[in-house]
Design brief:
heterodimer, A: 113 residues, mainly beta, five-stranded mixed beta sheet, four-stranded antiparallel beta sheet, B: 113 residues, seven-stranded mixed beta sheet, 11 strands
Amino acid sequence: DAKTTQPTSMDCAEGRAANLPCNHSTISGNEYVYWYRQIHSQGPQYIIHGLKNNETNEMASLIITEDRKSSTLILPHATLRDTAVYYCIVRVPFKAAGNKLTFGGGTRVLVKP
Amino acid sequence: DGGITQSPKYLFRKEGQNVTLSCEQNLNHDAMYWYRQDPGQGLRLIYYSQIVNDFQKGDIAEGYSVSREKKESFPLTVTSAQKNPTAFYLCASSDQTENTEAFFGQGTRLTVV
């Protein structure tokens, strides 16, 4: 799986949008970008994923650049409950390598009142 | 409710003893995974199984063993050969369809004294 690079930490004001960047410059054509988050001492929670089109769901939006070398996760209105470590992961489709996920260090997001 | 259950949440063992961590899922998922997480670090894959009676080593399998006798269950045994067993252990499961997300349990925190 391609390696990802994320900022170690970032702060965000409650009620404002949080933009979390991720670089994946060695991503292959069939690798998807996945985002998970982990609230302290809990299991990771799936947020969103995409291949090359921008995606949106009830939790967040995912913006992938045209060259697919980077992406941004957007939390539109951050709340205190969004404080967590956010992981950006790229992986091949299941049939090629199972659903193994390779986690990096992630970005520690602190939402402040 | 459908989900993935790990038990117990906290586990204490004496050094040199084997210990088995439980993971059960009722999501009818074919694939199951075990990850280890050390403080301030990302998750690392220990073992995974894509089908009953079959499993593969992950990145850090030494000192661990697993079995997959039933689709719903994927227990992990931490053996006395594991040099640094104290960690947070996470189990996950996923479907085998393309681009599906993994669902994680709430983890077991193992402390070896």
